[in-house]
Amino acid sequence: MVRRALWLLWILWPAFLVAGVAEFVFFSIFDPHDLVVFGRPLEASRQAVYALGFFFFWTLCALSGALTLALRGGEVP
User: Fold this and answer.
1) What is the rounded distance in angstroms from the CA atom of residue 5 to the CA atom of residue 16?
2) Is 73 helix (H, G, I), strand (E, B) or coil?
């Protein structure tokens, strides 16, 4: 159980920090109301787009971290 908690900590905390930076950079370049998905403009509020963007970046970063730990192999210290 402790090992699993360590893995989650090693994956989710850095992913959270990087997702915050990625969201800041992305939305400082693109306005949420200018985004188009499948040829249609988004019809959500800016806060909703910011939240979805953050969770998208967090998931992407967490998957990257999980893949890195999985490919690392060996025993977890």
Assistant:
1) 16
2) coil
Nearest in space to 62 (alpha carbons), one of 1, 14, 6, 4: 14
pLDDT digits (tens, 9 = 90+) for 21-32: 999 999 999 999
CA–CA distance, 76 with 19 (Å, rounded to integer): 25
Give per-residue burial for 36-72: e unless 16+ CB within 10 Å, then b: eeeeeeeeeeeeebeeebbeebbeebbeebbeeeeee
Position of tokens 């893949």? 67
Mean pLDDT, residues 53-74 taken together: 90
Residue 30: name the closest of 55, 49, 11 by CA: 49
Among all chains, which residue has been given the structure tokens 């400082």?
28
The whole-angstrom separation of Cα 70 and Cα 74 is 9
Per-residue pLDDT, averaged over 61-66, amounts to 94
